[in-house]
Amino acid sequence: MIRINLKVVLLLCAAVVVVTLSLWTRCGDVMLASRNRKNGGQGAEWDTGNKKMPSGQDAYGGDGIEHGGSSDLQGYEEIDCNINGEYSIGCRKEGGEIYMPFSFLHKYFEVYGKLATYDGYERFEWSHSYSKVYYPKGKYDPRGIFMYFENYNVEVRDRVKCVSATEGVPVSTQWESQGYYYPTQIAQFGLSHYSKNLTEPEPRRTLLEDAERDLLAHWVVPNGATLSRVLDSHTGSHVVEFSSPDSVTSGISLKLDHVLDFMLSLTFKLAVNSSFTVVLQSREKRDQIFQLHYTCSDLLISAQDQHVYHGIGRCGQTQPWRRLTRDLIVDLHKGLAYQNKLKRKLSRSKLKVTGLTFHGSGHLDNLTLSTSEHLSQFYDAAQWLVHHQDSSTGGWPNPVRRRVAPGMADLEPGWYSAMGQGHALSVLARAYHHSGGDNSYLHSALAGLRPFDVASSAGGVLASFLGRIPWYEEYPTEPASFVLNGFIYALLGLYDLSTVAPAASHKAAQLFRQGMVSLKQLLLLYDTGSGTTYDLRHFMLGTAPNLARWDYHATHVNQLLLLATIDHDPLLTATAERWIGYMSGKRAAHN
Ligand SMILES: *[C@@H]1O[C@H](CO)[C@@H](O)[C@H](O)[C@H]1NC(C)=O
Ligand SMILES: *[C@@H]1O[C@H](CO)[C@@H](O)[C@H](O)[C@H]1NC(C)=O
Ligand SMILES: *[C@@H]1O[C@H](CO)[C@@H](O)[C@H](O)[C@H]1NC(C)=O
């Protein structure tokens, strides 16, 4: 039944699509695409007046349209389309053809469409999926970009509460609203910045202060406060020493008028209770001023009106020099979102940095504003992984309870994910490579292999399909869930480590080879003939399959295409090609 319907519908729509209601666009009244367009092309061919349909709905094409020149679009009749004998919708009959509303087709077949105007005329663009295939540009190199993560903006996502100013990494609210450190997300943050470093243009950097010049030319130092240049014995370079007690409410400050660059970096040592504030001003509404406060505290984030607070951790003069990098736009964005005051995306071009003020006392150096600081952000993620690994198990714990599917036991806080472990290996392998062989990254990565040998039922990530085929579990559920994309990310992490440190990581190479064998054995169990499943819960639980959304399906495809550059088994390419076909509506043949 459905197959016949599909054919009829596709046939009808190939000619003309009448949109009665569009979920994707509000850009006009007339939403009619004509098969006669090849004769036309002058945008003003149709009357776009607000004509009303007999039903009283807004007219999206229809009666009132005046046709420019000759047209074979004569009138049409309203006709009921009876759907599988279950319900009816309004259609249109025109000669021997039937037209169905696109809003119906969208829901019925989960297809997508939008009006687009270019080359001087408007057309309707139909698409079967909404996701994009990324074709690798060459053989995958673990020292290079990770997948297509240069397109990721992890910290901007809604499910990121903020970027911690003590750790420099994102805090997730995906499964727990107060926020928690989610190793997978932190690794993705690191991998995206590593990849952006390799793909984006060179940043512009403005050095605001390095204590090598006359300080007082720049700084405003009120009565009662002090500021001087001193030689730092530890670094052997000049640094700024300042003191601005509580009684000096204005603090010592720098007046700025800086546009476009919003990555602030500085090296500092601050006394207890010190803080600094960055002032941002709207370039359009000069009275709109925001203050980003960075305080010596463990506060994650708080905000009130124009004031946003991030804690930079405990301070004290005995602490070593610390380098802090902040994306001021992200910090402001999160402060407004924290108060539910973010109306639309903040635009970098609409703001400027107008000042910087220090309170308390301490030392600072190398204060800069730059377009980007991708490697600092990457290393913040790598450092976080080194410092927050469970040294006894080698795992990066997920501190939240997680329900994967009804019928599977909840994961209790502290579970490990093969995807999180694998992503961490991808970060640490790159940090080991980029740092020129810093062993702290290698040791952490090697320890991170241990959960791959421990059964998922015993606190590790290793499951077994029918007791025979080993599998690395993104979610170590009971029974096993066999999530495909997380497994492949784990394989990539293993491959990255084994490539970057071959002598030290035979274990990673062996886990990778074993995983590739499993992947090839199970891959086609995910193929539905028109898409893929996200996991194998249908087999494990005897329930309906968990179909992969198009973005996950596209991830499967992109992962296979990437693997195919390092493993030439035709199964990988042939499967990827078929799965790409599903994204434009091609289906496997039936009997
Ligand atoms: C990438 O990192 C290198 C150092 O490895 C640096 O010189 C370069 O400016 C960075 N480029 C970008 C776009 O971040
Ligand atoms: C500031 O940067 C210079 C040049 O890279 C470096 O020599 C100096 O040690 C840095 N200052 C601090 C406090 O780290
Ligand atoms: C820091 O601030 C807290 C709270 O305002 C105060 O109780 C404490 O005495 C201050 N510590 C120092 C060393 O100034």
| Sequence stretches where pLDDT stays below 50 over 5 or more residues | 1-72
User: Helical segment tally?
Assistant: 12
Report Rg.
Answer: 29 Å
**Count of domain modules:** 3
Task: Give an overview of the whole structure.
By secondary structure, the chain is α+β, with helices and mostly antiparallel strands. It has three domains: 76-127, no CATH class; 149-199 and 376-582, no CATH class; 205-371, Jelly Rolls, CATH 2.60.120. Helices cover 26% and strands 22% of the residues. The chain contains twelve helices and 21 strands. The strands form five sheets. Strands 8, 9, 10, 11, 12, 13, 14, 15, 16, 17, 18 and 19 form a twelve-stranded mixed sheet that branches. It has a three-stranded antiparallel sheet with strand order 1-2-3, covered by helices on one side. Helix 3 (183-199) runs antiparallel to helix 5 (374-387), helix 5 (374-387) packs across helix 7 and helix 6 (418-434) runs parallel beside helix 8 (484-500). The longest helix is centred in the N-terminal third of the chain and has 17 residues, at 183-199. It starts with a helix and ends in a 9-residue tail after the last helix. The structure holds 2-acetamido-2-deoxy-beta-D-glucopyranose (3 copies). One 2-acetamido-2-deoxy-beta-D-glucopyranose binds at residues 210, 232, 235, 237, 239, 267, 321, 365-366.
